[in-house]
Fold:
Amino acid sequence: MSFLNINFPFWVTLALAAVIPMIMGFIWYNPKVFGKAWMDSIGATQESLQKGFNPALTFGLAYIFSLFLALGLNFAVIHQWHMYSMVMGQPGLSDPNSQLSLTLADMIHRYGHSYRTFRHGAFHGTLVGITFALPIVATNALFERRGFKYIAINAGYWIVNCLLMGAFICHFQTTVYH
Structure:
């Protein structure tokens, strides 16, 4: 079920999805939401966080890293990419008239829009958040000697971002063969 019939090209979808962590960061780490608890968990204050802070560099790099995440999520939430990954490097793939290319074109025609919903993307995005982001954040936190509160706030942030980015990518991206 589609709540908006808008489809964006591949790179536009990823560029827009990469903005989601920026928006969510302003909300999630706001002192009225989890910001105060996060600062307490790292022993920081508003003032100490401002020392040496370069907004252009920080937000620029954060956006680039979010693009990487969007690209990775793209392959986790849009299953049609896997049809191509199974035959990559096979003879005939680059020939549009080969049996392989014709079979792929037929499969995309028949199944190119299967499982391309907001809900499906949210489900797989959540799985990525739980199985990738949570272990990475938690492992770093263990070696940094951070507590449960720190892990919960940061892992929760990334799980929610993966959910939203996966949902956005899966719902709004045009089919993989465009």
Summary: The chain has one domain: 10-79+115-172. The mean pLDDT is 91.
